[in-house]
Amino acid sequence: MSRSYLPHWIHWLGSPPNFYRFAGALRPWLMAVALASAAIGLYGGLVLAPPDYQQGDAYRIIFIHVPSAWMSLFIYATMAVAGLVALVWRVKLAEVIAMECAPTGAAFTLVTLVTGSLWGKPMWGTWWTWDARLTSELVLFFLYLGVIGLCNAFEDRRRGARAASLLALVGIVNLPIIHYSVQWWNTLHQGTTVDFLDPARSSIAPAMLWPLLVMALATHLYFFASLLGRTRTGLLSLESGKQWVRALVDGQPAQTTGAPT
Amino acid sequence: MAHWFAMGGYAIYVWPAYAVFLVVLAWDWFAPASRRRRLTRELRGKLARERTRGTRATRAEAST
Fold first, then answer.
1. Cα–Cα distance list, A259 to A110, A117, A222 (Å)
2. Entry pTM
3. Contact B29 A111 (CB under 8 A)
4. Among A156, A169, A259, B46, whose Cα sits 20 to 30 Å from the Cα of A182?
5. In chain A, where does DSSP find H-type helix?
């Protein structure tokens, strides 16, 4: 096993009770910073940024649409990496993380599709079109649903998680298709607005760019906070027979009832 | 304020988009809490049953 090459803290964190406590401590801070940056980003995007010279105020949907679209890809990649670790090394924590990525990823993909539709109607005159970008994003949504469904189709949850991890890995071919769709098939969806690899190609004013990037930061932090919470619950469920979960349920009733801490 | 809320005539597209964003993410945030509460309740019930059974029955019966 190549696990001996890993630093000690990864071993420590890979143990479910340790991860459970670590995630519980980190999660509120991540969410606090996510909410604060979302407030700043939304103020910048909805109030400070000027209207677009072509699209007027309709373009303001960009401040949620594009960060959500980035998250739909980022979460999928995270899920696939965790799925790979789950398949190759059979790490229980990686199985849980991979599976708990899927609902939040599906949520962001849904937000991307719906906000895009609400943006497309005034700009393109249609709610939906079978444009390459839109279609590949819809395929991503179905991939997330497929991962969730496949995971739940098995009686043995660990086998379900590994089967769904395999599906997640196969589906990763869709990510470059989504990313390059606006270049390969130059149909209705507009091209890249923010190009991180080549900033000179970005076609966005600084007053519009900074709220977009702050919203991107907020959604990333939100995702990590959400994932930590979901993973904690997933670990409790998977390890319900273990001593640490029994002690937790027994010994700290104030902490385990009501809202998750 | 009313001018800002009108979003240059695009209010019926901009505000529903933001509402969808908030509602979907609020679902994502709060859905695991109810799953967690249900799980904790089930586990606590199971532990309580094991304990009452354990006082008057053998371990073999308790595990069935």
1. 26, 34, 17
2. 0.89
3. no
4. A169
5. 8-14, 16-43, 62-89, 92-124, 132-152, 157-170, 174-184, 206-238, 243-251, 253-256
| pLDDT, tens digit (0-9, with 9 covering 90-100), for B20-61 | 999 999 999 999 999 999 999 999 998 888 888 776 555 555
The whole-angstrom distance between residue A219's C-alpha and the CA centroid of its chain comes to 8
pLDDT computed for residue A209 by the predictor: 92
Q: How many residues does chain B have?
A: 64
B20 touches chain A (CB under 8 A): yes
Q: How far is CA A33 from the centre of its chain?
A: 17
- C-alpha to C-alpha distances, A248 to A72, A154, A181, nearest whole angstrom: 34, 27, 48
Tell me how far the alpha carbon of residue A183 is from its chain's centroid: 24
The residue of B27, B36, B49 whose CB has the most chain A CBs within 10 angstroms, and thus the best one to mutate to test that interface, is B36
The answer to whether B36 contacts A111, with C-beta atoms less than 8 Å apart, is no
Averaged pLDDT, groups of 10, chain A, 261 residues long:
71 93 96 98 95 91 96 97 95 96 98 96 91 94 97 94 97 93 81 73 84 97 97 94 89 49 47
Radius of gyration of chain A (CA): 20
Does the beta-carbon distance from B17 to A119 stay under 8 Å?
Answer: yes
Determine contact, residues B13/A57, Cβ cutoff 8 Å.
no
